[in-house]
Amino acid sequence: MTSNGGTPTDATSPLASLTRKPERAGDRALLDALLDEAKVGTLATVVDGLPWSVPMLFARDGDSILLHGSTGAGALRHVAAGAPVTFTVFVLDGLVIADTLFDHSANYRSAVVRGVLDVADDAESALEMLSDKLIPGRVAEVRPTTRKELAATVALRLPIVDGRWIAKARTGGPGGESTDWTGVVPVRTTYDAPLTYSGETPPESVRALVNPSPVD
């Protein structure tokens, strides 16, 4: 089996499964939920024999991860040309407080997706989809992207292929029993009130980030 970029998948590879604490392995539902929640991941590859990695905004679109960057970035040209990559995402859900430093831990969700990036066939549509997943409704509020802006931007897709991703998570409190205080300090990401740099009233898409509509 091959990915969209032509790189063979190998479900028997040691990179395709957890070797430590395999009980923390997650399914595709965990992977999708994590990729839909997180906004930043780290793209990594090897350039001229040296490791290279950069944090990037991203969004999941079905069975692929959308990324974008400048056409002038040499490393992005390298991965767009078919260099193998990993994309890593991590969300911290809580600090686990134990009665010894050795047993302190964290509740988290993480994923590593491996593969080859494809250049998006329709860069404008990919960029709009990425923008609307990061800030829902924003695309309809701004002017269309110009040809010059599109020419300076590369939109990329990383296919999510079975055998080439790992998701894992830790939940719960510290292990063992203790008479000392132990517990979990939950961690979450929230949007604060926007800081205005120009204009008067923030657009609807921005206000919705801070005060989302209740879910029925």
Task: Jot down its keywords.
single chain, 216 residues, alpha+beta, Pnp Oxidase, Chain A, six-stranded antiparallel sheet, four-stranded antiparallel sheet, 10 strands, 19% helix, 33% strand, disordered N terminus, Pyridoxamine 5'-phosphate oxidase, Split_barrel_FMN-bd, Pyridox_Oxase-rel
Walk me through what this model shows.
The protein has helices at 28-37, 74-80, 123-134, 147-151, 204-210; strands spanning 40-47, 50-57, 59-61, 64-70, 84-97, 105-116, 118-119, 153-159, 165-170, 183-186. The chain has 216 residues and is an alpha+beta fold. The chain has a domain at 19-92 and 106-172: Electron Transport, Fmn-binding Protein, Chain A (Pnp Oxidase, Chain A, Roll).
How would you summarize what this structure contains?
This is Pyridoxamine 5'-phosphate oxidase. The chain has 216 residues and is of the alpha+beta class. It has helices at 28-37, 74-80, 123-134, 147-151, 204-210; strands at 40-47, 50-57, 59-61, 64-70, 84-97, 105-116, 118-119, 153-159, 165-170, 183-186.
Straight-line N-to-C gap: 41 Å
Structural class: alpha+beta
Helicity level, as a percent range? Answer: 10-25%
CATH level-four homologous superfamily name of the domain at 19-92 and 106-172: Electron Transport, Fmn-binding Protein, Chain A
Contiguous low-pLDDT stretches (5 residues minimum) are 1-9
Got a strand count? Answer: 10
CATH class of the domain at 19-92 and 106-172: Mainly Beta
Number of helices: 5
Which H/E pattern describes the elements? HEEEEHEEEHHEEEH
Binned strand content: 25-35%
The averaged pLDDT comes out at 88
